[in-house]
Design a protein that fits this description.
This protein has a ten-stranded parallel sheet with strand order 3-4-6-8-9-10-12-14-15-17, with no helix packed on it. The protein has three helices and 22 strands. A hairpin with a 4-residue loop joins strand 21 (324-329) and strand 22. The protein has a domain at 295-341. With 341 residues, it is mainly beta.
């Protein structure tokens, strides 16, 4: 009798131990799991064995506030929890995760430090002030638009091809360790962008920042460039370029630089490529030689002067004293000159 009782107790213990549960405190999250067939009753628990082999989970747009229990999805590779009300998300236990969309939440904290397999991260429209991607060595797509991020260090994310980080508080971007295809960083207080070595870059949107200059000499495959300003009124940021050298960017087909009020001459590799570009401001014009640094005292005798323009792009018929004027020659060379009384 004692042996039978002992055997029964052992069997019961084994049965209990086999029924390992994961806590799911958010009833909406648990209801979603019931709808997906991973649970059958609202009791803040789900059998771990029901979820630990799931590789894809979509719980978007359900008004979930707490994703506690996601750690039980230990083989998860795809997670979409966008358009919810989640404040904190820790996914460091989901080591196989490759795709994450947690956009349109209320995230203050996002923990993804140890996700070395993560390929795509979409965390736009949250309240993040910090985003640490050092541990995400496989990352190829990063979208973190409309947060409060003031610094991005992407040196360890050398496989990145797409970065969308517009509408943040970034003041500088050093991307020289990367070779991006797409960079969209509009509406930031950025004063400096380092795009050295990014020879594959095709799309650059950086309008409405605080740029006074930009070096695009390495970006020889650039096709799209938006570097103007949409609104000159506060509180938006405004680029204020005085020079723009596109002489190495002969593949540009879409170009926008309006409302850079101190930009006059835009240097291009060939005037013919500008035919379908957007309309310039009145003071702006294209040239194959803007001659930004040289101020000549004489017009070279072998070059034919075509026209003279003032800083507003208006043609000038007589030389004005104490005014900055631009002398445009037949070979497209331009001189910036001032004649003093």
């Amino acid at each position: 009798m004692k042996i039978k009782l002992l055997s029964l107790l052992v069997l019961c213990a084994l049965s209990i131990n086999a029924q390992i549960f994961t806590q799911i405190p958010d009833s909406i999250f648990e209801q979603a799991l019931i709808g997906l067939g991973y649970d059958n009753t609202i009791d803040s628990l789900v059998l771990t064995s029901n979820i630990n082999t799931v590789d894809s989970l979509d719980v978007s747009n359900l008004n979930i506030s707490d994703l506690t229990g996601i750690e039980g999805f230990s083989t998860l590779q795809y997670l979409d929890c966008s358009v919810n009300n989640i404040n904190t998300l820790n996914l460091n236990s989901n080591e196989y995760l490759k795709y994450l969309n947690c956009s349109d939440n209320s995230l203050d904290v996002l923990r993804i430090d140890s996700l070395n397999s993560l390929d795509t991260l979409k965390c736009s429209f949250n309240n993040l002030t910090d985003l640490n991607t050092d541990g995400n060595g496989s990352l190829t797509v990063l979208e973190c638009v409309s947060n409060n991020i003031d610094f991005l260090n992407l040196d360890n994310n050398t496989f990145l091809g797409t970065v969308r980080c517009g509408h943040n508080n970034l003041s500088t971007l050093n991307l020289s360790a990367l070779d991006l295809y797409i960079l969209q960083c509009e509406y930031n207080p950025i004063i400096n962008i380092n795009l050295a070595n990014n020879s594959s870059l095709k799309h650059l949107t950086c309008h409405d920042n605080l740029l006074q200059s930009i070096d695009l000499s390495d970006n020889t495959n650039l096709e799209w460039l938006s570097i103007g300003n949409g609104n000159l009124m506060p509180p938006t940021f405004n680029n204020d370029l005085t020079t723009l050298d596109l002489s190495n960017n002969c593949n540009i087909s879409n170009f926008y630089c309006s409302a850079n009020i101190n930009l006059y001459c835009i240097q291009v590799c060939d005037l013919s490529i500008t035919t379908n570009w957007s309309q310039l401001d009145a003071q702006q014009y294209y040239s194959t030689n803007c001659n930004y640094t040289a101020i000549k005292e004489k017009i070279p005798s072998k070059e034919k002067l075509v026209k003279v323009r003032d800083v507003f792009g208006r043609e000038v018929n007589s030389i004005k004293q104490n005014k900055v004027l631009f002398y445009i020659y037949e070979n497209n060379r331009i001189e910036k000159r001032i004649t003093l009384q």
